[in-house]
What does this fold into?
Amino acid sequence: MKRSTKLSAEDIYHFHEGTWMDSYRKIGAHPTEEVGRTGTRFTVWAPNARRIAVASDHNSWDGFRKAGYELEKIELSGLWSGFLAGFCEGDLYKYDIETQGGERQLKADPYAFAAEVRPHTASVICSLEGYEWQDKGWLRSLKPPHDRPLNIYEVHAGTWRQHQDGRLYTYEELAEELPAYVAEMGYTHIELMPLVEHPYDRSWGYQGTGYFAATSRYGEPHQLMAFVDRCHSHGLGVILDWVPGHFAKDAHGLRLFDGSPLYEPADPLIAEKEQWGTLSFDYEKPEVRGFLISNALFWMEMYHIDGIRVDAVSSMLFRDFDRPSGKWRPNRHGGRENLEAVDFLRQLNTAVLTRFPHALMMAEESHAFPGVTAPVEQGGLGFTHKWNMGWMNDTLKYISQLPEERSAGHSLLTFPIWYAFDERFTLPLSHDEVVHGKKSLLDKMPGSYEEKFAGLRLLLGYMMTHPGKKLLFMGGEFGQFIEWRDEAELDWLLLEYEQHRKLHRFVRTMNHLYLEQRSLWQLDSHSGGFEWIDLQDEGQSVIVYRRKGKAKGESLIAICNFHTHAHAHYRIGVPSQGGYKILLNSDSTAYGGFDYMGSSATEGTVLRSEPVVWHGRKNSIVLPLPPLSIVILKREKEARAAVHKEREPQALREEVGLVLPGKHRNRRERIANAKA
It folds into this structure.
């Protein structure tokens, strides 16, 4: 027998306090049994409604057409509830709400677990029980994220792959292909753009209407659970883009839910987000804060999501965000900060990290708000990571310039280090940078066809060796040439062309090198993990730096040449005498380069130091430095294990690394074909 979902006095108290973190377990539509009858209990918050009924096929979508479908108001709570016999899983419904002004409106359930496939807008009665998870080992293996490798592949589920007739992949079909591909490429996490139900495809999920409903575009809730399960079986974490900053104005959604501003503030100078055509949440209401925090926990509890990336945090933190003078409301102290949003974010992070201490809580915050990743008890917002938008903007501005003009903007490369350890940062090359006329990453690169690929290899290598966790939007790994088209799949056919195949190989090699080299991630948030060797060669657009791990001597040296000039003999200072092995040279022909310097710059080559003072160090080495390249060195003693890993049978590594998604259905088949 299914348990009752009637509200208790304690539930109601915590709901109004904003501290009922599992409110989704009783609010919404829950199939159950009461008084020996099978049906569904409906509960909804609508304090200003005059009457509420359930509209469905049972009553020709008129909740008041005949008796038996009205909900009862729980006095003084603003909550309405009722058990309706005969309603079962799969039934469609909406709330038929009569406002205080006598108007009628049909609203989707804010707590519904499923919704009709767009363009239809009804909620669907759905139970999330019954899925048998297979990821206990993954959950037991979770560790604090700060000193772990974190390399994220950002995905829009609707356009990563599509069927030839344009149909979207289902969650089940994505599970067959996406996790295996991402794992073989050497990423650690998949970040999915929002999966909450949303009416308009081209909003990409950032303007939602059903926060507890995994979008039905791609299938059923249990299929999404199976997708996450499959990711975990491949050793991949799953991050979900999440949008507590605003919601869509569509008539069936949250706007004026009970005829009055409920989820949004009543003051339009606070509520309206005119640049997006959406409405802000009202963080002053405990019930709204509880709704959102319960939702974040819901995705982790019910779908085993490993973390969330909170979208548009700056728009939440500042009341004047993207508003002209006189079109915003100061806070109670006369300032621009949204004090209620600050409190909400602190409450959110405290709640999530208390229940899921190893969760990733990532903020997209672009306005240098202090203490985004500082602990709440120290006055911070409590996030685990923050997107480094400053690094992203400076780097893309620099890399888009002609090489001969870069010396004047050299500080765009060197300045980000001065604040790189103020927060725990993630370096994002996200979907926002390759859409709406911004060009793809490859097309941002100036120069000839070959120089574009060389520039992109350099950019990606620079990102992977710079302090901070990593994120790359899908398509960047093989050089999508045109910017992201948000209605068509990626141009996988480009992998039939040599330069794109070889770039793909470079990204895979770089990703695996990142995983193998602890100096690239152990001290990402500590200044002790980075050391400049030379930041002043702006005339030749070269920077040289060292990344360090926790163990003594655990370090790499990265030399980045952002100019088209090659150097037959480029000298750099090194920390100690000995041999330094080339772990990676982006100019290798294996990656689409030209091997400008021949065998003297081949991966595996050992360069011997000389007792020549250079860059303030007693010892130095001379190496050939190709144009538009990154070369990574490691002292020979520490490099032996890494080079051995990189010298696995090349036929297997290359074939497995270059298989197209969908070409083979499972890893065993891919390996068998590679060996053949």
Summary: The two ends are 55 Å apart (CA to CA). The CA atoms of residues 185 and 508 lie 5 Å apart. The longest helix spans residues 498-516.
